[in-house]
Amino acid sequence: MEWIPGLNYHRVITKIVTALKSELKSSGREGYVFGLSGGLDSSVVASLLSRSAAERTFALVMPRSSVTPQQDVSDATDLAKRLNIQFRIIDLTGIHSDILRELPVDKLASGNLLARIRMCLLYYYANQKNCLVAGTSNRSEFLIGYFTKYGDGGADILPIASLYKTQVRALGYHLDLPDAILNKKSAPMLWEKHMAEEEIGMSYEDVDRILYNLFDRKASPKSTAKKLNMPLEKVEQIRQMSIKSAHKRSLPKICKL
Fold this sequence. Notes:
Helix 1 (9-27) packs across helix 2 (40-53), helix 10 (204-216) crosses helix 11 and helix 11 packs across helix 12 (232-244). A four-stranded parallel sheet has the order 3-2-1-4, sandwiched between helices. It has twelve helices and four strands; from the N terminus they run H-E-H-E-H-E-H-H-E-H-H-H-H-H-H-H. Helix 2 links the parallel strand 1 and strand 2. 53% of the residues lie in helices and 6% in strands. By secondary structure, the protein is mainly alpha-helical. It has a single domain, classed as Rossmann fold. It has helices at residues 9-27, 40-53, 70-82, 93-100, 107-129, 139-144, 165-174, 179-182, 196-200, 204-216, 221-228, 232-244, and strands at residues 32-35, 57-61, 86-89, 132-133.
């Protein structure tokens, strides 16, 4: 089975922390604000931010009580305390429900709305505290568009967007994150029982192997399928997800006159 190469994670940590410090200095802002869910990606970002600007980092824990497991909230707050990061819990149930009362029923749109409410609150606090917003997207999700445009995709800097999901998990081990977080399945929880791998239709291990061959090795879909010993349809699915989500990774088009 072909896997993506390992990394020198001590060097990775040093590079990301240095980049976070540099961005803060060049921007003239006073710190970072980010969303802490209790999941792997946001926990890795929390640890990296704590190493770059712990006393100037503020985390928002933003559950929607009807769909967010209480364990996720506990994992998030326990980690923030362990890293000496200031945090605030804001239950989004009321805000989300109030807006939905005026809107037609749509499961996907409702989930994306929840992500965009979180983005609004992050930028509110970023404005109030003169901070930058740090996003938590990894390379796997960034390349296939598995994020909400102007939701969790809304950020000023993406600390781990050069790392595939499996690499983020490995980095989490090097950062000594709790096992409960390291072993947790990715779950956006934009609606009840919302699991990432179920929605994507395959494991992150397979997603990463496909992306690495398509993007890093510049291999064709056919050669990728052959090399990884998997159906071509599976490779094409990931390639099409990347193509169709290109608009999420670029600035809005300007109509030229």
